[in-house]
Amino acid sequence: MSTSLVPFNGITFTVHTFGCQMNKHDSERVYGTLESLGAQAVDTVEESDIIVFMTCCVREAADTRLYGQVMSLKNVPLRPDSPLDKRIVAVGGCIGQRDGNKLIEKMPHLDVVFGTNNLSSLPQLIKETMRDKQHHVATVEESSTEATELPSDREHSWAAWLPITVGCNNFCTYCIVPYVRGREKSRPLEQIAAEASAYAKAGVKEITLLGQNVNSYGRDLYGEPKFAEVLDAVAESGVDRIRFATSHPKDLTDEVIERFATIPNLMPALHLPAQSGSDRILKAMNRRYTVEHYLELIDKLRTACPGIALSTDIIVGFPGETEEDFQQTYDLVKHVGYAQVFTFIYSKREGTPAAKIDDPTPHEVIQERFDRLVDVVQQGAFDYNQPFANKTVSVLVEGASKRDARLLVGRSPQNQTVHAPIPEGMGISDLAGRFVNVKVEQARTWYLRGSLVAGPFDHDQTNPEL
Ligand code: 5AD
Ligand code: SF4
To answer: Does one domain contain both 408 and 355?
Structure first.
């Protein structure tokens, strides 16, 4: 970053984020970077001098939404007391990386485009636009962990995302991510350990380790995956709760599974995308595991950590999927009994190998399969929650419910959403970012509801030794 930067004093901005946790984390870096230069985050586009979109191109729906939102800005006037004479609109993230200059051709009122590896260039690009009123575009191809060093302004002071790798080497045939995020790069273990312990010292209660495939962490740096060591190092920080996403089943090792038994602050929840329950489709997706292997992992996880909350991603309608293939997916989802399943209809992404496969299956057939799957997903979530009725769970409070300000909302160790009335005499500011014990009265499909029976505490009561 240039030292000649004029700080953005008096300038306001908003950041609009689409997509995954990695994007949300990148947005925290945009907040941190612009704020460190004097800009002020505001709530609405009407008040914003700079508008940044952090975009996702994993599925087509996100592309369409971006164009709609950017185009609609044309009708929103700049606030009268803005120090700028024209609003600056910037698009970053995956669509910025993929489309670069093409975005400006399509949307001429866009000022700045920056790629997934150009987060640190954003202030410079904005400054150049302020000066010369021209468009500025930066999209370097090679992935870099540089952005992980930028200042970050976290959404919640008690929760932190900690990126351990950027990029992906897997090339699942449907997926655009390796093309827009580049090859996998790991951050040094010491750096991760130091960051985790700084977070714990600063009062962070939950750290979520991030990477497209955390299980292959370290292969580029150390010649072998070392994710289990990352978990050990982060556990040493003493942070109350550790989570991670995402895991690729082909790289999930016995050592990592064993950590669920041995690290008390590693939460009993794992997101393990299956994508399909058909070996034929898994092969066509280049996933490099079989259903049998996947089920073995599930067994081992349940042995190491009884009651672990398993979640997954499923794609319905991958090109060439037959009714029989789909039935196998349906059976897998039913058999595993996931706490949560993220279901997606296959979306063709130009440039990926799967985009070249023709599939005459009508959309209605795929939609009908999707609807059938959603039914079994809901049943699974409901069944998973039932044993929690009448039990007491430790909840990290996130805030008040948006629908009813008298309710607190937080998360159980299994990552279930938990609601409970805020007790008389307490406000949400006494509770947010702290732990309470909630006795569950109702176990519903998507949440548990109960009453606060103890707390607030500064540490997670599921781990009394902490
Ligand atoms: N179409 C539909 N779903 C996709 N995903 C990734 N690429 C596509 C695509 N082209 C899903 C996968 C992945 C999740 C983040 O998004 O299930 O795990
Ligand atoms: Fe995409 Fe596969 Fe990499 Fe996940 S592992 S980001 S699905 S290529």
So the answer is: no
Write down the pLDDT at residue 462: 79
Q: Is residue 462 part of a domain?
A: no
Q: Are residues 204 and 120 in the same domain?
A: no
Q: Is the residue at 144 inside a domain?
A: no
61 and 161 co-located in one domain: no
Predicted model pTM: 0.94
pLDDT tens profile 266-284: 999 999 999 999 999 999 9
Residue 317 lies in a domain: yes
Closest CA to 383 of 322, 330, 445: 445
Full residue range of the structural domain in which residue 37 is found: 3-138
Instruction: Indicate if 45 and 183 belong to the same structural domain.
Output: no
Residue 341 lies in a domain: yes
- Cα 52 to ligand 1 centroid, rounded to whole Å: 24
Query: Does the beta carbon of 191 lie inside 6 Å of ligand 2?
Result: no
User: Separation of 256 CA from ligand 2 center, angstroms?
Assistant: 20
**In testing the pocket of ligand 1, which one of 98, 170, 174 has its CB within 8 Å of the most ligand atoms?**
174
Least confident of 17-31, 136-150, 411-425: 136-150
Give tens-digit pLDDT for 22-80. 999 999 999 999 999 999 999 999 999 999 999 999 999 888 889 889 999 988 999 99
Q: What angle do CA 254, 258, 262 make, to 5 degrees?
A: 165
Nearest ligand 1 atom to alpha carbon 176: 7
Residue type, 74: K
Q: Is 56 in the pocket of ligand 2 (CB under 6 A)?
A: no
Q: How many whole angstroms from its chain centre is CA 134? A: 33
CA dihedral 101, 105, 107, 112 (to 10 degrees): 30
Beta bridge partners of 92: 54
Mean pLDDT for the chain overall:
94
Annotate 202-246 with DSSP letters as a single string: TT--EEEEE-TTGGGTTHHHHSS--HHHHHHHHHHTT-SEEEEE-
Q: Do 288 and 352 reside in the same domain of the chain? A: yes
Q: Nearest ligand to the C-alpha of residue 59? A: 1
Domain total in the chain = 3
Task: Tell me the ligand closest to 212's alpha carbon.
Answer: 2
Indicate if ligand 1 lies below 6 Å from the C-beta of 59. Answer: yes
CATH code assigned at 22: 3.40.50.280
